[in-house]
């Protein structure tokens, strides 16, 4: 931790603005977790920037005592890229939701990940449009009833983590709004990653999609529906860790097996294995658990450092405006 910031606390990162979300919204828990985490990152408030688009989650910058932009629907990744390019010393965060980030903003999200721009992207996924009164979103489950689908949505939902991996993301993780310790650990890892860090946060909307993630949040049943991934350790879940995940090498599909007596068949989590990460991100159905933690992490060239390197080379060239204007083909206008 930066020794010049020994006295900073959660309160130092909380703005004087009244927090205005619906009572019980998962955004409150995420906000507190991020505010509490900020001092541990060792970066001055003046070098932290939060950029958001449009949606409930996008009010986030108002509540952080840092620099921030509440921008245009779906365009937060593009604006954040510009901020980071203009000043690489800044720690730039993108706050977005499942609708903002993967509907109108899907194209911008894809290219920020593809380019490996040095951003921390926190996607609040409540599988609904909350701000505009409950329309189904790109992540809503089939059958979701909403003002725009009173008889139930027939759209197949996308997986944010799978899309992020398919876009070439180099850090992909998933956590839960009310799991403060787990969420803080995942976000901190993402912050230390060079390049684009994408974190999907399963978040409750008590008004329009209440309880959609209750199975992974209710401590009584969560052990059977959630598996916490730890690099280098067998993937086990259940109240007594009695169940495990195995790879059927014939069909290349994941299976649930009894952990006891099958230790040699249990899948060992490997953050560097993209194929395994894709299978874990896609686990779904009434029997399979939801995988949380660091799904995938890859070291690869980061966009900002490469861009700055090229900029320095261009600036160091021995040239002049006059020489530039008179170079190449010219035309005489009479």
Describe it for me?
The chain is α/β, with parallel strands linked by helices. It is 28% helix and 18% strand. The chain folds into two domains: 262 residues, 3-Layer(aba) Sandwich (Rossmann fold); 35 residues, no CATH class. The strands form two sheets. The protein has an eight-stranded mixed sheet, sandwiched between helices. The protein is globular, with a radius of gyration of 22 Å.
> Strand fraction band?
15-25%
Estimate the helix proportion, in percent.
25-40%
Summed over residues and divided by their number, the pLDDT gives a mean of 93
Q: What is the CATH superfamily of the largest domain?
A: Thiamin diphosphate (ThDP)-binding fold, Pyr/PP domains
* Gyration radius, in Å: 22 Å
Largest sheet: 8 strands, mixed
Question: From the helix content, strand content and strand pairing, which structural class follows?
Answer: alpha/beta
Poorly predicted regions are: none
The counted number of beta strands is 11
Backbone shape:
globular
CATH class of the largest domain: Alpha Beta
Widest sheet: strand order? 2-1-3-4-6-5-11-7
CATH topology (level 3) name of the largest domain: Rossmann fold
Helix count from the secondary structure assignment:
11
What's the number of structural domains? 2
CATH architecture of the largest domain: 3-Layer(aba) Sandwich
Order of helices and strands: HEEHEHHEHEHEHHEEEEHEHH
């Amino acid at each position: 931790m930066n020794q010049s910031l020994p006295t900073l606390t959660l309160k130092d990162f909380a703005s004087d603005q009244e927090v205005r979300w619906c009572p019980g919204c998962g955004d409150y828990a995420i906000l507190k977790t991020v505010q509490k985490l900020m001092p541990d990152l060792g970066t001055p408030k003046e070098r932290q920037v939060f950029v958001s688009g449009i949606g409930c989650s996008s009010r986030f910058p108002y509540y952080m005592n840092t620099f921030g932009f509440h921008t245009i629907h779906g365009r937060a990744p593009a604006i954040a890229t510009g901020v980071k390019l203009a000043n690489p010393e800044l720690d730039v965060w993108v706050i977005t939701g499942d609708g903002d980030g993967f509907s109108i903003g899907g194209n911008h999200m894809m290219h920020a990940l593809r380019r490996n721009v040095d951003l921390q992207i926190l996607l609040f996924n409540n599988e609904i449009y909350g701000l505009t009164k409950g329309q189904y979103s790109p992540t809503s489950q089939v059958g979701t009833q909403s003002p725009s689908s009173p008889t139930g949505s027939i759209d197949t939902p996308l997986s944010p983590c799978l899309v992020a991996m398919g876009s070439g993301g180099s850090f992909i993780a998933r956590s839960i709004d009310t799991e403060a310790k787990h969420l803080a650990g995942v976000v901190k890892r993402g912050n230390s990653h060079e390049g684009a860090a994408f974190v999907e946060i399963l978040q409750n909307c008590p008004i329009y999609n209440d309880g959609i993630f209750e199975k992974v949040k209710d401590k009584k049943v969560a052990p059977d529906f959630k598996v916490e991934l730890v690099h280098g350790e067998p993937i086990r879940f259940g109240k007594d860790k009695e169940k495990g995940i195995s790879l059927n090498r014939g069909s290349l599909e994941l299976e649930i097996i009894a952990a006891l007596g099958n230790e040699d068949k249990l899948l060992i989590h490997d953050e560097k294995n993209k194929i395994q990460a894709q299978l874990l991100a896609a686990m779904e159905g009434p029997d399979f658990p939801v995988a949380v933690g660091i799904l995938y992490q890859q070291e690869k060239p980061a966009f900002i450092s490469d861009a700055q390197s090229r900029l320095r080379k261009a600036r160091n060239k021995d040239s002049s405006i006059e020489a530039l204007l008179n170079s190449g083909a010219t035309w005489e206008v009479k």
